[in-house]
UniProtKB/TrEMBL annotation:
Pfam family, one: CinA
Organism superkingdom: Bacteria
Keywords, ordered alphabetically: Hydrolase
Stated name of the protein: Nicotinamide-nucleotide amidohydrolase family protein
Transmembrane segments: none
Alphabetized GO MF terms: hydrolase activity
InterPro entries in alphabetical order: CinA-like_C, CinA_C
CinA C-terminal domain mapped to chain residues: 10-161
Length: 165
């Protein structure tokens, strides 16, 4: 068993319990978290009723091939952008049987940041198949790679909880 903080496991448990009761499934599209969202959800017994699939799309090529992110979007706005996060979440829904999807793309650090896109900048998008969409731009700051990834994981799970309400 991996060790996730209790508050992360509590959020994952809420999603698994609530979505199981409603017959809903989830897909994840992850860049900077590298599969942590799917990992946290699948720590919960019974999660197979809820987790449809996860896409780990660390490179731009993977984002394009697996999620249908447009090359023009990546060229114009970059991988870490609202536009890319929205195309990632749309692609995850379109390429799965899930009722809900969440997507994250960001700069976890310690390097890779810039003045425009500093370490700790993460774009998250969560979408329901009925069209309801949430986007969040988070600026966690240069708090360390693990902390950026855990904060992103927590925010992503909170967004799924909110969509499921």
């Amino acid at each position: 068993m991996m060790h996730f903080p209790d508050e992360i496991l509590a959020l994952a448990q809420t999603i698994v319990t609530d979505f199981t009761a409603k017959g809903w499934m989830v897909a994840t599209a992850e860049s900077c978290t590298g599969g942590l969202i799917a990992g946290a959800l699948t720590e919960i017994p019974g999660s197979s009723a809820v987790v449809d699939r996860g896409f780990v799309t660390y490179t731009n090529t993977a984002k394009m091939e697996m999620l249908g992110v447009q090359e023009q979007t990546l060229a114009q706005f970059g991988a870490v952008s609202k536009e890319t996060a929205l195309q990632m979440v749309h692609g995850a829904l379109f390429r799965s049987r899930a009722d809900f999807a969440v997507a994250v793309t960001g700069v976890a650090g310690p390097g890779g940041g810039s003045a425009e896109k500093p370490v700790g900048l993460v774009h998250l998008a969560a979408k329901a198949r009925n069209g309801t969409l949430i986007h969040r731009e988070m600026r966690y700051g240069d708090i360390g790679r693990d902390n950026v990834r855990l904060a992103t994981l927590k925010t992503a799970l909170e967004m799924l909880v909110a969509l499921g309400r």
